[in-house]
Amino acid sequence: MHAALGIDIGGTNIKSGVVTAEGQVLFSRTVPTAADNGGESVLGRLLPLVEEAVAVSAGAGAQLGGIGVGTAGQVNKHSGRIAGATGNLPGWAGIALAERLGEASGGLPVAVDNDVNMIALGESWLGAGAKYGEFLCVALGTGIGGCRIKDGAADHGRDGYAGELGHMIVQMDGLPCTCGGRGCWEQYASVPALIRLARERGLPEVLTSPIALFAAADDGDAAAADVLDVYAERLSVGLAGLIHIFNPPAIVLGGAISAQGEALLDRVRARTFAKVMPVFRDPAVDIVAAELGGRAGFIGAARRIMQGR
């Protein structure tokens, strides 16, 4: 039995799992990232996960074929080095992650990629994207990340940095963004943007989380429903642009907010389809929620190393 270790590095937690070639998760582990201690400290937290995966695989009679890693930030596809990272992972930029993990694991193959690319691969293999040969994955979280999957592989662009969908400019001279620009889509359609909108509309603090907003709207709270409608409108602006650019058969929406399912999707679909040219509505693009939740990243990372590309 062949298996791979998948690792998903976030600003708060590191999720890992040993996944077989048939998609069975033999073992999974979540540990705090402790990102404030710096990049070398985060790297050090990965090594016990590798050792544990080797032991678990051997005990299950599986041959561990390599390590796939998804991480926030930009990853150079040629070297596996972290080319750029957000403030959530201080000191992470510049780490030669593929090389260092390869050495620490005794020479196992290592594939490193952006976390949303790995999430998209997971959804392509075992989740919402499995029935599509091509789709866009849009992850709604602290920011907005994205990936285009075609023929089972992520579109990396020239150097591996493709998919920064959240930094499409949707409002000239708009809100300042953490990237240094202004008017980026993630300043209007990320989860923090939704929370900020709720506060600007005067909702009580207990109703500013996405879960609370959707629950209140479902209970008939008109103010909460109005906030969600405005958010869906802002989200649809970017989705309509992506449809015009890529003409995809489907868009898979990921991130924790996608768990709201049809309460989110119904709002988003109607507003998105109203903005695209008629030829892009016949047939309409499938806009669906991701299915693998918090496991998507490490499942996709394991898949990446199995693909050998």
Task: Please give a handful of descriptors for the protein shown.
five-stranded mixed sheet; alpha/beta; Nucleotidyltransferase, domain 5; 9 helices; 22% strand; 12 strands; 2 domains; single chain; 309 residues
Characterization of the model:
- By secondary structure, the chain is α/β, with parallel strands linked by helices.
- It contains nine helices and twelve strands.
- The strands form three sheets. The chain has a five-stranded mixed β-sheet with strand order 3-2-1-4-7. The chain has a five-stranded mixed β-sheet with strand order 10-9-8-11-12, sandwiched between helices.
- The longest helix is centred in the last third of the chain and has 25 residues, at 222-246.
- The two termini are 21 Å apart.
Task: Please describe the topology of this protein.
Elements: E1 2-9, E2 13-20, E3 25-32, H1 39-59, E4 63-71, E5 74-75, E6 82-84, H2 97-104, E7 110-114, H3 115-126, E8 134-140, E9 144-150, E10 153-154, H4 186-189, H5 191-200, H6 210-218, H7 222-246, E11 250-254, H8 262-273, E12 286-289, H9 296-307
Parallel strand pairs: 1-4, 4-7, 8-11, 11-12
Antiparallel strand pairs: 1-2, 2-3, 5-6, 8-9, 9-10
Under the CATH scheme, the architecture of the largest domain is: 2-Layer Sandwich
Distance between the termini: 21 Å
Largest sheet: 5 strands, mixed
Strand content: 15-25%
How many beta strands in the DSSP annotation? 12
Reading side by side through the largest sheet, how are the strands ordered? 3-2-1-4-7
Structural class: alpha/beta
Number of domain units: 2
**Molecular shape:** globular
Query: What is the name of the CATH topology of the largest domain?
Result: Nucleotidyltransferase, domain 5
Mean of all residue-level pLDDT scores: 93
- Unreliable stretches covering 5 or more consecutive residues: none
